[in-house]
Amino acid sequence: MALGATVYNFDIDLADSDRSVYESLALRVARHPSESDEYLIARVLAYCLEHTEGIEFSRGGLSDPDQPPIAVRDLTGALRAWIDVGTPDAARLHKAGKLVSRVAVYTHKDPSQWLRTLSGERIHNSEALELYAFDRALIANIASRLERRMAFALSIDDRELYLSLADATIRGAVHRVQTWSSP
Prior knowledge:
The chain is of the alpha/beta class and about 180 residues long. It has a single domain (about 5-175), classed as Restriction endonuclease-like alpha-beta roll domain (Restriction endonuclease-like alpha-beta roll fold). The protein contains four helices and ten strands; from the N terminus they run E-E-H-E-E-E-H-E-H-E-H-E-E-E.
């Protein structure tokens, strides 16, 4: 019997001064059985960093390789942005670049090895690809406190994240990673 997804509830007071986004979010996030705590946290933080009208978690989740973990759609349902999490391969990024003009990736791992695997690969519109790396200590610290129901305040200022839980404030950054030129 296959394991089903586990639902996590996040109540987030988001204050993103970089983009002037101030919202109270109530997120129900399905966690695939193969998904790590760190990946889940990176996915939730990426959602917050990208929060805009039309944003949604993928309907298929990790089980649907043809969908991004996070999508931004317009009112007609057309895909406007593909937001990936982790270390997607070049073929996935190539496909995403052909489907939509804006592709962003947030990784919770050391990006240097991943970038080496992408170097020299053909990726459509690679010059427009946005790559971001979370501070790994930030992700680990939040993951160690992960519960099925969490409430916190998240403040973002100059790509520096401040996450306030009941008993602690966790601080870390998300950095833009320099890309490469694909053939």
